[in-house]
Amino acid sequence: MDNAIAISGLHKSFGRTQALNGLDLQVATGEVHGFLGPNGSGKSTTVRVLLGLLHADSGDVRLLGGDPWKDATSLHRRLAYVPGDVNLWPNLSGGEVIDLLGRLRGGLDQRRRTELVERFDLDPKKKGRTYSKGNRQKVAIVAALASNVDVLIMDEPTSGLDPLMEATFQYAIQEEREQGRTVLLSSHILAEVEALCDRVSIIREGRTVETGTLADMRHLTRTSIIAELAGPPNGLANSDLIHDLKVDGNRVRFDVETKALDSVLKQLSQVGVRSLTSQPPTLEELFLRHYTAETAESVAK
Amino acid sequence: MTATLERLPAPPSGPSHSFVGTWQLARLALRRDRIVLPLWIVILSVIPSSNAGAYDTLYPTVAERAALTASIGANPSVAVLYGPAFDLSTAGGYAAWRLGGFMALFIGLMAVFTVTRHTRAEEDTGRAELLASTVLGRYAALTSAVLVSGAASLLIGLISAAALAGAGLPAAGAFAFGLSTAFAGLVFTAIAAVAVQLAEYSRTANGIGAAAVGVAFLCRAVGDSTVDTKWISWLSPIGWAQQSRPFAGERWWVLFLPLVATVLIGAVAYTLLPRRDFGVGILPPRPGPAVAAPGLRTPLALAWRLHRGPLIGWTIGLAVCGAVFGSIASGIGDIVGDSDQTRQMLERMGGSSVMTDTFLAAMVGVFSMTVSLYGVQAALRMRSEETSNRVEPLLSTSVGRLRWAASHLVFAFLGSAVVVLVTGITMGLANGMRTHDVSGSVGDMVLASLVQLPAVWVIVGVTVTLFGVLPKAAPAAWGVAGAALLISMFGPVVNAPQAILDVSPFSHVPKLPGQEVTATPLAWLCGIALAALGAGLVAFRRRDIG
What's the pTM? Predict the structure, then answer.
């Protein structure tokens, strides 16, 4: 079995609201897969379908080769889940919750539990609501990471964590990857996604719009070029591959489709290049393009 | 240019005292309570006048009314439940005796739930924090809750007074009845305002408030049923409502007691409020263990942690009530003797011709109806676990939905059985020690209590059905339990048609001791409870969580 998670054509609606509209998601066994999309795009709904908490309207959903709805309990022995908004029982301490969830999953690695509690600087004696948001997240994270499971499903797990704990979390996920565990990581923290994820899927309005490695995706976007040439540029304005061209004497400034970078540079060097700055697209630009494209389209209509 | 010298406009100035924003919060509370509060108001306002109307049909002649006064009026064992009978010769006096105490009791519960819902519960969810960051005075949240609860109390009092007067009863008595009820609501509003300062969580605050209402009822029950300790009734806000004697030579000065108490207790709440931190009670939270006990490894073990507090509280509360009423029961026959009217009266409450048995049977009925409220509370815990996102982490482990539901339903069904059983035992013990037949009495009362269980289970079963089929409407289970309670408690008194009485499962259980045990209705009730449970669980397995 290649894919730990395989979803195709998933539909789910709540009353009149169409939450998922033909979503596809493939997560290979042993990879850390980033799951991205704007707020309300259907990430949490997908995760809850994967956990068998919601019944899909249509579409094919396989988790570790099983049906998440029918085989929920047997599959759940092999996965751990960290919700984005952890709510603890007011009269149970954090330590008790960690142990309880671990035992209900079918086993807890005591050594790893102790180690994680220490690394995440968590006071396990506090009770439910006396924890801050970040500390509640830590309880769920420790409970998940200390469990002996194959798959980790995390829905914005680091919301509320401080930068130090964010680093601790990233380190812990790296360890999980080395152990060969599969991780589905829904996140809005792009640096986290960049640092951890082998591949990412971007969804929007309940549909997958992009899947691949970050390098692949970068390739599909534009690079910004600022160059000072030996003479006046010619022919640049006619190229389809060049956007937002600004010419100021011998200085040019434009964006170019990354796949056409080579040919455009050749064109520039024919004139003679005195200086050149090239800026690859930032992650933010990459995601913003995907997040906002649909809105722009619908406005255009 | 002068424009560049201009500063940004100053922030709009406004009041900044400790109560600023109270009015807006009160309007928010009314908006949120637009269904619950009108229900309380309508139901509580309508009951007194509907009851007064039945008086003329029940006791048409002067002779019957005189006999009623002579028998019931002098009977302390009846006074335990309904309070002192000051004047049973008029419809108003009868209604005030029969309902005054219960009106004060229920308005007290309304006040406790309303105040908690808009203060402590809001802090628990974190919504209050968002509001508190706006221009909101320190006392605004508490004051708005107190205003809403107080206004609802006054409205209930005024509407019920108007309805009584409209039914042709003396205006002075109607007004006294309405005010005494409303003022009881004010006292419990103040008590709830203190409870929400003390408790760490809204659940605890509701518990403290409801316990205060229970203690108030118990105080007046004890005071009214004895000769030498009548002063105990005067400790109770419910007692004050009755001692103002509506329709029986109104004692208007008594109405000052609840007003003074409201101000004093309210002052305590307002003194405590600035002395506690937001989101924390005066009673501080204690740290817990760093590692879970070895036993905490199943959903049932978790459910025990969540349910044990309420279960122990309910068991102790009802056990005490059982002991109090059990110890009083044997006195009833001595006083009433062979009075036909009393016997008929008690028979209408449902029972045999033996006075003590009838009284015990009526009490067992009241207790089991009360236990059904525990059953609803325990079953609805599933819904509150679901809405607060605590069920998702559990269901994402190897725990299946049915196993998780079963862990809570053990407490809803078997927990109710424990409370019913313990109440039966304490009732039997207390009665048996008076009659010098402990073993016989305990056996009788345990049997009497247990035959009520199927009716309790029907209510719990319907709660599970609602939870499974219409999760968003699950709190309507309170309405189901309340309706059954009202029908069985007050239906017979107002000569309600049999078709209505039959709706309540409590109308179908044998009233022991005194009646024959018949298996058929019990089997039917168990069957209905089981079907309702099954329907709810099947639907729960198929539906979306959240």
Answer: 0.79
